[in-house]
Design goal:
Layout: H1 12-28, E1 30-32, H2 37-44, H3 46-56, E2 61-66, E3 71-76, H4 96-112, E4 119-122, H5 123-132, H6 139-151, E5 155-157, E6 167-170, H7 180-193, H8 198-213
Antiparallel strand pairs: 1-3, 2-3, 4-6, 5-6
Helix pairs in contact: 1-2, 4-7, 7-8
Length: 214
């Protein structure tokens, strides 16, 4: 059993931040530095992250921080990844259309990614990219998908997303919301249809290479 006595030794402020971070991660999976800097910085502290992982290990989770991208994320604990009945409980099951839209957002993020500047696209640019791959969603389906993605700190927006000039911010957490297996599955459909571009496949292969190196 994990020793959780460290919790009683925390200052009131640290205990408060600890609880907020844990609850936020359990609810949204991601903490993004550009969105919630105070919570992210708390988790990014090595000592705080160690304590948090001691706590989360009890329920089969761990926190991983990607400092270069400014993203903290909840993942299954290594010891529990293959435990029957536990290994998929933390996953949100996107439907196929949402997965394809996520892929489009991921590709748009990669096209514009820089480590110093925020990444924005317009609703019109998203729609154009979807048309390129024959992804058809109704305005209601787009709106529902955007709301879901915002809940999980993948995107944010304040403009009217029903208009083509509405701005959508793409967070670096998009790079971690689908595993490589899921990406390959979706991309394979595009390849079969002849809709996929060589440059986009290169992006996937690069992402897969980086994941295998970790």
């Amino acid at each position: 059993m994990q020793d959780l006595s460290f919790i009683s030794n925390m200052s009131d402020e640290d205990a408060y931040l600890f609880k907020r971070c844990v609850r936020r991660l359990l609810d949204t999976t991601f903490l993004v530095k550009d969105k919630e800097e105070k919570l992210y910085q708390f988790v990014a502290s090595e000592s705080n992250r160690y304590d948090m992982n001691q706590y989360l290990a009890v329920i089969g989770y761990k926190v991983v921080v990607e400092e270069q991208m400014g993203v903290a994320m909840l993942q299954p604990n290594d010891d529990d990844k293959e435990t029957v009945g536990l290994k998929r409980l933390n996953l949100y099951h996107f439907d196929q259309r949402h997965m394809k839209l996520l892929l489009v957002l991921w590709l748009l993020f990669l096209e514009r990614m820089g480590y110093e500047e925020a990444v924005y696209v317009t609703v019109g640019e998203i729609i154009d990219k979807c048309r390129l791959y024959d992804i058809e969603l109704t305005p209601v389906e787009f709106k529902k998908a955007y709301a879901t993605f915002r809940r999980f700190c993948l995107i944010d927006y304040s403009d009217d997303i029903t208009k083509e000039d509405g701005a959508v911010r793409l967070y670096p957490s998009l790079q971690f919301c689908l595993d490589i297996g899921q990406l390959k599955q979706v991309m394979a459909e595009f390849v079969e249809q002849g809709d996929f571009e060589a440059a986009d496949m290169a992006d996937l292969e690069e992402a897969e290479s980086e994941e295998s190196d970790e």
